[in-house]
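lol forgot to send this yesterday, sorry. struct tokens for the thing we talked abt
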């Protein structure tokens, strides 16, 4: 048999030699084309580790439902920061990593992210008044690099005030704990007016750090309130607040159900896992090419009332049947 190398013409040999590198390049490009693009997402939150199971974990779950698999086509960089003075540094770090979207939890973290970048899209979650805080021009037309969800308005605090009086009708002095960076001036004004109309004195107490709680309660002095509202409070302050108010036997209505799970009396507010799942929907739209300025800011449409009967018993309170009938979840 004649060897193949003897019957192959010099021209074919030269062509074959020239085509080999080209074929290798085509094969390499084909493999590269099959590799999915990895989108990098940044998340900043002040939630405690216990709260992450109902917030960031819900976000990750929804991203998986939207076919984003960590390690394959998405990378999620989470920064859990308890100190407000570190929010800006965390946002700057994420921008430096080249994230395509930042999910910011809370007013303070969103403000920090806004100060760091005007180009990277920011999806806000757990923000009170996004317009009042200057994050967006309007809910329907954000007009910038920020969109997401906003509670807007004082209704949540007013309903919480009514619930507090329903379970503690003898209350004549109510404290409203708030963090100044949350831009809740309008909500506090509405609460003062509602309290005055019912003959109740409202005492606003400012909290800047989680470790301010002891001194804030002490500052109330002998005229301290007999009940508290804690709606405009950062999530990193909630668990410590539950501990202190339990020791002082103070009934408190919170804005987040995690506080009730930890032993608080009642909460009224939006479902936090739902908010974080909604944030994932925004991220998906942005990764597909949508611009934040074209994505209207959404407001929660459903709110849940959670009651802790064990805590009520410890405080010597009887939860009215009318309140229990409205409760979405009751902790026995």
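and heres what i got for the seq, position by position
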């Amino acid at each position: 048999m004649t060897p193949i190398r003897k019957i192959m013409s010099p021209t074919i040999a030269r062509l074959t030699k020239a085509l080999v590198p080209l074929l290798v390049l085509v094969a390499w490009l084909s493999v590269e084309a099959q590799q999915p693009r990895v989108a990098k997402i940044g998340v900043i939150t002040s939630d405690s580790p216990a709260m992450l199971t109902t917030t960031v974990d819900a976000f990750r779950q929804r991203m998986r439902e939207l076919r984003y698999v960590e390690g394959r086509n998405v990378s999620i960089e989470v920064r859990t920061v308890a100190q407000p003075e570190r929010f800006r540094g965390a946002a700057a770090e994420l921008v430096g990593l080249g994230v395509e979207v930042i999910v910011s939890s809370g007013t303070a973290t969103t403000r920090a992210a806004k100060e760091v970048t005007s180009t990277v899209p920011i999806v806000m979650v757990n923000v009170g008044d996004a317009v009042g805080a200057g994050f967006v021009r309007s809910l329907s037309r954000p007009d910038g690099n920020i969109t997401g969800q906003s509670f807007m308005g004082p209704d949540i605090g007013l309903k919480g005030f009514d619930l507090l009086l329903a379970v503690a009708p003898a209350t004549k002095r109510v404290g409203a704990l708030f963090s100044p960076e949350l831009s809740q001036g309008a909500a506090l004004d509405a609460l003062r007016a509602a309290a005055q109309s019912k003959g109740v004195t409202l005492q606003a107490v400012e909290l800047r750090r989680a470790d301010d709680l002891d001194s804030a309660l002490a500052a109330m002095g002998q005229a301290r309130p007999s009940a508290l509202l804690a709606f405009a409070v950062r999530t990193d302050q909630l668990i410590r607040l539950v501990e202190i108010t339990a020791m002082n036997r103070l009934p408190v209505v919170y804005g987040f159900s995690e506080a009730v799970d930890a032993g608080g009396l009642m909460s009224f507010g939006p479902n936090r896992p739902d908010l974080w799942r909604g944030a994932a929907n925004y991220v998906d739209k942005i990764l597909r090419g949508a611009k934040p300025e074209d994505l209207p800011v959404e407001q929660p449409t459903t709110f849940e009332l959670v009651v802790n009967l064990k805590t009520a018993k410890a405080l010597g309170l009887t939860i009215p049947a009318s309140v229990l009938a409205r409760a979405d979840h009751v902790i026995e």
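The chain is about 40% helix and 20% strand. anyway ping me if u want another try
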